[in-house]
Every structure is written in structure tokens, then in C-alpha cells.
Write a structure and sequence with these properties.
heterodimer; B: Transcription Regulator spoIIAA; seven-stranded antiparallel beta sheet; five-stranded mixed beta sheet; 19 helices
């Protein structure tokens, strides 16, 4: 099964933030959207990613948006930063998914759906904070980590999960002492993401609940949003519905608000 | 999505939202086919982690239930729901409730005829008097003591005294129940419980596959507990005669206990006796008589004529069996498992104190049985990944050891299939002390291998 060495190897292989992205993010941080766009134009892969993300139906633009300056202008500082981090997380995703039935397109779709709906939630909660907006970007990295660590052991995991209903997070914790969210935190540290991002993410596991009420509240919304998305047919089919445990009691007090906001009936 | 099978109950555990949008994604055609083929007592869908559902979301599972019921007599339904979910399901399907609703998986176990826990005191309430009676009858048939309450007031009054009951059942609904013949293992004998009038239906309700597996893994005494049988017809007579003939090929014995011939033709008894079937008045007449057990082939000193020995085919595949065990232990403990000396002889367990064991049988192109013997503390370490917490609960430890040996069995099946050898595995069995293990295997020759992980020694024994 997954060894500590394999976990360490994975963490070591996380690349540092590329210079172009670092500069783009610091310019976004000081509100220099046009300058940030000019720098981002230099990274063709980033440019292509930004275009493909914002032109997804969930963003609701009638005409194709292709100019990076225009994209940053429409998204604003917080969502632009969120999208650049989505791109960075996307860089960690495998070329070919094996454990989960995903591909580049469906993974990016998941990132886009989570990001857009997270923005709707933050608007509803009257929160305008670029780090909190960005925190959702880190969440799908838990899926990438599971894929990276468990693919080699897929047969064993299937055998184990056929005997006992254990999710990937529990298996990883029991054999290594690390949770998927601990490893997500390591990614955040390596990329010098704001501390609040890891705190929200850790709490959003529903297992490592923050004592900070504000963080805890956001984490509940994030946990429920994740399972709302993982209940979409494409992700159920991908095998993601039960990759981590849904902590239903953790989110029960916000469910009605969530259902109203997401128009669930 | 596939169900997790434990204690002969398969449970699906969807999470999040179940609606018309995603319902078909939870069950592929393959998932449905493999579930229908499962030989289990019940197939349930746990609602524990479902936060939202509507009728369309449940329909895919209802269709699965219908297919299962059509194919066999497995009990189907939902479990682990809250009051609101219970009310919603009943409202959605009020006139079409052929499936059952069990408030928790523990409650479902009580209605499973093969569940090992018996003699439980159970307080029951349902606002439907037919349901109250149906539950009481089922629980009674499964060896429990149901206490029915006739009104919610009586129920509320009685439930206050929690210590008086092992279980309290409400918000539970019985749909079509299974009518498979219950079976249990007692020492080296398999006991089947038959009730009421026996006719041609016995061909459907008797799990012949389970019976054949039991013969294949070495059981030699099969007892039909027939205290509640009123009579039988010629179809049932033929069925038992055929069963007896098949058993004779294995030198196995079939016996009836408590069968009255008040309403059954006396000639039937003679026919059955001619087939080799024995009759006893009381179960203890057999189970408490060591000499008789020995004679019937159900004791450690069984004088089976064609005693099956370890053969060349099994020895050739021995590395696969050991590899499967080593790989499973390594997977469960994340440490290196080491094989020490292997010897062919009868099982030898030095220092029997504080040791437990588990076994699993396999049959098909090869047949035999793998036994693992652990000091209790080391069993706990080996099962840490499955247990997940510190525990001294022996029932939990044994239960988990059964899960571990089940994984070993699955691994054996996979490794042998790489050599084009197809086997199926039986349900795992556990032994809470070495004496009960020796009752089963002490006369069997096999390959004994000492294994260890992190200097924790345990024993592997392969026999037929």
C-alpha cells in the first residue's frame, strides 16, 4: 500500500510556482489587472487555460472572450487569482487518469463548476476576499493526490474496499498518518498560498474542524458544495462520489440555505 | 458502484444527492448484473450519507430491487435513514412497497436468518398492526424474543427502560421477505432450519450452492432442524433423497432432528432412511454426543474413508497462496512480511493461549482451505487498517480478522486466475480459540508456514 516514501516523493515532485505565474499573481494582488494580463500572455498554456475556463457555459458569456486583459477585467482581482491557481493545480493533474474515470476536460469542468458556485456562495455570504475566493482552487488537488498515490495500488484498494467501506482519505490516514488534506496543505505551503486557504481546506474535510467560527462556516459550505458536485453523473461515473467521506451531520445546519441558493427542489 | 458485502448482507452507500439527473450513474449494467448474481441474504441501500433525494433518484435502486427479487429470494430495501427520509420513502411508494425499510444495518441483521447473534430481546412498534405481527414472527423465527407494543403510548412507556431490551425497533417496515432456508454452523456440523409444509418450493429456498461449498470445504454432517415442520410431500421427499445420494459421494451424513410423522406418511420415513438419512428427536442427541459426532464424521477424529490429503496440484500452487497472504499482510500493515520454514504435517500450534484463527475455503479447479493463526495482539496489529481504533472488543477483532482472511481469499482467487486456475471462495470463518480450530483441522495434513511482519509471528496453514 502507499508508503511514506511514496508520499514524500509526491510532495517533492510538486514544482515551485513558475516565475510567470508568481509575477501574475503579485500583480493581481495589487490590482494591476492589465499588467498581470500582459505577463500572463507570455505563458501560452496559461492563456489557453484561461480562455477555455471562462468560455465554459457556467460562466455564461454569450460571445467568446479571448483577450487575457478582458478576461481579468471581467473576472476581477479575486476570481482572476482563483483562476490562475486553478491553472496551477491543473498542472499537477496526470496526462492520463487511471484510478478515476476523468480526463483533462472533465477535471477542468469540475474546477470551473466548483469555482463559479463558490463565488455564488461567497456573494450570498457577503464575503469579498481574494484568498477565500481562491481557497476553492486547492480542493480538487485532493483528487489529484488520490490518483497519484493510489493508482499503483488500485487492485489492492479495490479488494480492500470490496470488504469494508473505507474512503481514500481514511485508508491514507490509517497507513501513513497523513490525510489527503495534509498533503493539499503542503501544496499550498510550497506555492506560498495564504494560510487561510489551507485552514479552510483542512476544515472542509469535515474531520479537522476549525475553532474559528468564520473559517468553520466557510468550510461547511465548501464540504457541501464538493458533494453537490461529486453527485453529478459524470463524477459519480468517474468513481469520485465516495472517494472521501461525506460528513452529513457537519453540514446539516446549512443545508436548507444551500438548497435554496442552488435551486435544489 | 458495488455493494460491500458483510455478514451476508450487501450494502450500497451512495453519498450526497440522488435525483433524476444522476440516478443511473450510481448503477451501471455491470453493477446490476453482478449484484443480482450475489448469493446473499439481503441487498440494502444505506441512506446514511444521502442529504437529498427524490423519487426519481431512488427509482434506479427500486428497479434493481425488482430484478433481484425476480432472480432470487433476497430481501431488498433501504437502511440507515432518518425519520424524514423514512416518511418520504413511504410517501413516494405507498402502494408499491415490496421492499423493506430497516432503520439501521444492525436492525437489518436481526431479520437476516443467517446472522450469528440470536436470543435478543427486542421491543417492537409500528403503527400498522400487520407490520407489528410480521416483524414479531420474523424475529421469532430467527431465534429472538420480540416484545410487541400495541400503541405508541405503550411503546414510549416501555422504551424508557432501555436496559431491558437489546434492540428497540420502530420506523421499520417489512416488505417481501426472503424465504431461503436458514443455515448456521455449529462446530463441524451445518444446521439448516426448515419450517411448515415442505414441498417443491424447497428446490428454490434451499441454497444448494452453499451446501455444495460446505461439502467441498470438508463439512461432513448436515442437520435439518425440523421441529416446526408440519408435513412434506413427494417433491420434498425426492429432494431430500437426492441430497442424501449426493452427500454419500462425500461420505457425508444428513440427519433430521425433531421431525414428527403425525401428518407425514410413514413410508416417507422408510424411503428417507433407505437413502441414508438419520432421524433424532432432539438436537442435543447429536451435538452433545461426542461418540456419535465422531461416528457421523463431525468430530476431529472423523473416520472419513476417503480422507482428502494435500495433493500435487495444491503444492504446485503453494507459492501463490503464500504470496496472497504475504501481499495482504503487507498491504494492511505497510511493512515487509517474511516467510520462514515450510513443513508438511498436521497443524501444530505451540502455546495455544491467547491465540485466534480464521479460515477461508476455496473450490473450483482446486479446492482446499487456508487457515491463519495469530496471537490476539498481533491479529489486532494486522487488522489496524480495518479496525482504525484501539480496541479489546473480541467480537470486533474476530469480525475484522474474517475481513482480512476474506481479502486473502480474494487475492488467492486473482493470483490463481493468472495461471488460468479458476476458484471461488467461501465465506470466512473465525475461531476464538485454538481448540475450536483443532476440532476442525487437527487430523488434516497440510503445509504449515511460519510468517512474520515486523517480528510479529503468525502461522499459515494450507490443507484440503
Amino acid at each position: 500500500m502507499v508508503t511514506k516514501e511514496e508520499i514524500d516523493n509526491f510532495i517533492q515532485k510538486i514544482p515551485p510556482t513558475p516565475e510567470v505565474l508568481k509575477e501574475t499573481i503579485s500583480l493581481l494582488n495589487i490590482g494591476e489587472l492589465q499588467k498581470a494580463a500582459t505577463v500572463a500572455e507570455g505563458d501560452l498554456a496559461l492563456k489557453s487555460y484561461l480562455k477555455s475556463i471562462v468560455n465554459k457555459p457556467i460562466y455564461g458569456f454569450r460571445n467568446e472572450v479571448s483577450d487575457i486583459g478582458q478576461i481579468f477585467g471581467i473576472l476581477g482581482v479575486s476570481q482572476s487569482q482563483q483562476t490562475v491557481y486553478n491553472y496551477m493545480i491543473n498542472l499537477l493533474s496526470p496526462d492520463k487518469w487511471v484510478l478515476f474515470k476523468l480526463n483533462k476536460k472533465s477535471f477542468q469542468e469540475l474546477q470551473a463548476n466548483l469555482s463559479k458556485k463558490w463565488t455564488i456562495i461567497l456573494e450570498y455570504l457577503n464575503i469579498d476576499d481574494k484568498n477565500i475566493t481562491t481557497s476553492i482552487s486547492l480542493l480538487p488537488s485532493s483528487i489529484i493526490i488520490s490518483e497519484a498515490l493510489f493508482t499503483k495500488h488500485a487492485e489492492d484498494v479495490n479488494l480492500l474496499r470490496g470488504t469494508k467501506a473505507l474512503d481514500y482519505n481514511t485508508i491514507l490516514y490509517r497507513i501513513s498518518g497523513y490525510t489527503l488534506f495534509d498533503i493539499c496543505e503542503q501544496i499550498a505551503d510550497k506555492w506560498e498560498m495564504d494560510k487561510i486557504i489551507s485552514e479552510i481546506l483542512q476544515s472542509s474535510s469535515g474531520l479537522n474542524i476549525s475553532k474559528d467560527e468564520d473559517i468553520n462556516k466557510l468550510a461547511k459550505w465548501m464540504h457541501l458544495l464538493l458533494f453537490y458536485e461529486l453527485s453529478q453523473p459524470v463524477y459519480v461515473d468517474a468513481g469520485l462520489n465516495d472517494f472521501i467521506d461525506f460528513q452529513i451531520d457537519y453540514v446539516s445546519d446549512i443545508y436548507d440555505e444551500f438548497a435554496t441558493l442552488m435551486d435544489i427542489s | 458502484m458495488k455493494p460491500v458485502v458483510k455478514n451476508n448482507i450487501g450494502v450500497f452507500s451512495p453519498q450526497g444527492f440522488l435525483d433524476s439527473n444522476n440516478n443511473s450513474a450510481f448503477l451501471s449494467i455491470d453493477d446490476i448484473d453482478s449484484t443480482v448474481k450475489l448469493k446473499v441474504d439481503m441487498i440494502l441501500v444505506s441512506m446514511k450519507k444521502v442529504i437529498f433525494f427524490n423519487r426519481n433518484g431512488l427509482d434506479v435502486f427500486i428497479k434493481l430491487f425488482a430484478k433481484i427479487r425476480k432472480a432470487n429470494h433476497t430481501i431488498v430495501g433501504f437502511c440507515d435513514y432518518n425519520q424524514k427520509q423514512y416518511d418520504s420513502i413511504k410517501k413516494f411508494y405507498k402502494n408499491e412497497m415490496t421492499f423493506s425499510l430497516f432503520k439501521s444495518i444492525e436492525i437489518a441483521y436481526l431479520f437476516s436468518s443467517n446472522f450469528k447473534d440470536k436470543d435478543k430481546k427486542i421491543l417492537i412498534y409500528s403503527d400498522d398492526k400487520h407490520q407489528r405481527s410480521a416483524m414479531a414472527i420474523e424475529l421469532h423465527n430467527n431465534g429472538h424474543y420480540p416484545i410487541m407494543t400495541q400503541s405508541i403510548e405503550e411503546f414510549d412507556k416501555k422504551r424508557v427502560n432501555k436496559d431491558a431490551y437489546d434492540y428497540i425497533i420502530s420506523t421499520t417496515y417489512l416488505g417481501e421477505m426472503g424465504n431461503m432456508i436458514a443455515s448456521k454452523v455449529s462446530g463441524n456440523a451445518i444446521i439448516y432450519t426448515v419450517v411448515s409444509y415442505l414441498d417443491a418450493d424447497i428446490n428454490d429456498t434451499f441454497n444448494i450452492q452453499y451446501h455444495n461449498n460446505s461439502l467441498n470445504v470438508g463439512f461432513r454432517l448436515f442437520i435439518f432442524e425440523a421441529y416446526k415442520v408440519i408435513s412434506m410431500n413427494v417433491h420434498a421427499l425426492n429432494f431430500f433423497s437426492r441430497l442424501a445420494s449426493a452427500a454419500a459421494e462425500y461420505n457425508a451424513t444428513i440427519a433430521f432432528v425433531g421431525l414428527s410423522f403425525d401428518k407425514t406418511p410413514k413410508a416417507f420415513k422408510e424411503n428417507l432412511e433407505d437413502s441414508g438419512i438419520l432421524f433424532y428427536d432432539q438436537m442435543d442427541d447429536i451435538l452433545e454426543n461426542k461418540e456419535l459426532l465422531k461416528e457421523l464424521g463431525a468430530s476431529s477424529a472423523a473416520n472419513i474413508k476417503n480422507k482428502r490429503t494435500i495433493n500435487k496440484a495444491t503444492v504446485t500452487e503453494l507459492p501463490r497462496f503464500i504470496d496472497a497472504t504475504v501481499a495482504t499482510i503487507e498491504m494492511m500493515t505497510n511493512s515487509k512480511a517474511v516467510k520462514e520454514a515450510a513443513q508438511v504435517h498436521n497443524i501444530e500450534v505451540k502455546d495455544k493461549e491467547d491465540k485466534i484463527a480464521s479460515s477461508i475455503g476455496y473450490y473450483g479447479d482446486l479446492d482446499g482451505m487456508v487457515i491463519l493463526v495469530f496471537p490476539t495482539d498481533i491479529a489486532k496489529k494486522a487488522c489496524e487498517l480495518l479496525i482504525g481504533e484501539e480496541t479489546n472488543d473480541m467480537e470486533l477483532i474476530l469480525d475484522t480478522l474474517a475481513e482480512l482472511v476474506n481479502i486473502v481469499g480474494g487475492k488467492i482467487k486473482t493470483l490463481l486466475s493468472d495461471d488460468n486456475i479458476n476458484v471461488n471462495i467461501t465465506l470466512p470463518r473465525t475461531y476464538q480459540d485454538i481448540d475450536s480450530l483443532l476440532e476442525v483441522v487437527q487430523d488434516k495434513k497440510g503445509v504449515q508456514v511460519d510468517l512474520s511482519f515486523d517480528d510479529n509471528k503468525f502461522l499459515f496453514f494450507l490443507t484440503r
